[in-house]
């Protein structure tokens, strides 16, 4: 199995620093299915290429079948499967380039977050769905895709194409993003894995797919295939991905297209991105320095708050310990600069219980949180946030149920997320917010988030509460 990765970035030989592999040496690594070799076919300041060559041991695979159940779909000892890219190559990629996938480069930390020109080539890749499946998986991530079906037999054209394709990707992105996408999507195209899939695979998928999978238009297909169609695991993963993107798994997570001047098409950011931008703008307008993200989930808003020195104290709060662990991974706490780490705290707590640690902050954010609370517990949320914590400002966003008719894939009468206890109309949201403000000494303003449809309003509605000072 062979994969090559090239770059033409300035000082292209620095690719060795990013990969933690010296370009002047060939290296070999033992993996479960054989030996992975790292080679450098070309190295210069203009262009550098690294090759990952996986030498599969088919005898060891067969002898290990009892440990993996039916995970190894190989005939006895030899067939074509060991010699095409599959989950075996993905596992080798994850082991050999683990540090690079994690986005760490101690020798050149300035390169980690830098988008660089990349070219990836896989000469033999199984694709259950043919060449037509490759583009919908890679193009939404920013890759230019060249995919060539491979004939079953070059000498017998009547036999048609084989299940394999040759793939060439070109694009500009961080190396870590490119590696994690390959790690997930190579076995997805194959629609199979050589090992038994357990619940740990959900965490692996969310970890590797963080930052790109939750907004991918084919995320459900990716999830099903990556988890070998195991229903319980797929439901867990899809639900957690939907929580990351703050939406039910429907198309409002994907970028929309609008017509611009002269008939040109303009890409519109996903609703989750627009929502975070609207919350950040509101916090800056309110002059907030210390912010509590109450119901922070896996840390998407925190990831934008922490690097901004405007916010001198950032507290992420969630009732789920698992969500906080995911937030730690997403925020890369172990590699976060000390100046940022000093401004951040993660706390386990509930939105419906009074917590003295949340008192005294400038702002509390409840972004897509209240609809997850049972209606009879909303008074407890009101007492804990507006009565006890009493921040200067409270920013609340929640879905506008009137807009649901604009989601073509959402069945009539259903909510956007399976964990939503309710979704309010604009009048219902204003009725609740006005009453809360009046009871607790706040004023409240309202803003639309997303396209403000003249008939059904925006997809997300936002209220900004300001505490009245004596």
Automatic annotation (TrEMBL):
<dbReference type="InterPro" id="IPR024740">
    <property type="entry name" value="Hen1_N"/>
</dbReference>
<dbReference type="InterPro" id="IPR026610">
    <property type="entry name" value="Hen1"/>
</dbReference>
<feature type="domain" description="Hen1 N-terminal">
    <location>
        <begin position="1"/>
        <end position="242"/>
    </location>
</feature>
<keyword id="KW-0479">Metal-binding</keyword>
<keyword id="KW-0949">S-adenosyl-L-methionine</keyword>
<dbReference type="Pfam" id="PF12623">
    <property type="entry name" value="Hen1_L"/>
</dbReference>
<keyword id="KW-0694">RNA-binding</keyword>
<keyword id="KW-0489">Methyltransferase</keyword>
<dbReference type="InterPro" id="IPR038546">
    <property type="entry name" value="Hen1_N_sf"/>
</dbReference>
<keyword id="KW-0460">Magnesium</keyword>
<comment type="similarity">
    <text>Belongs to the methyltransferase superfamily. HEN1 family.</text>
</comment>
<dbReference type="InterPro" id="IPR029063">
    <property type="entry name" value="SAM-dependent_MTases_sf"/>
</dbReference>
<protein>
    <recommendedName>
        <fullName>Small RNA 2'-O-methyltransferase</fullName>
        <ecNumber>2.1.1.386</ecNumber>
    </recommendedName>
</protein>
<dbReference type="Pfam" id="PF13489">
    <property type="entry name" value="Methyltransf_23"/>
</dbReference>
<dbReference type="InterPro" id="IPR024026">
    <property type="entry name" value="3'-RNA_MeTfrase_Hen1_bac"/>
</dbReference>
<keyword id="KW-0943">RNA-mediated gene silencing</keyword>
<keyword id="KW-0808">Transferase</keyword>
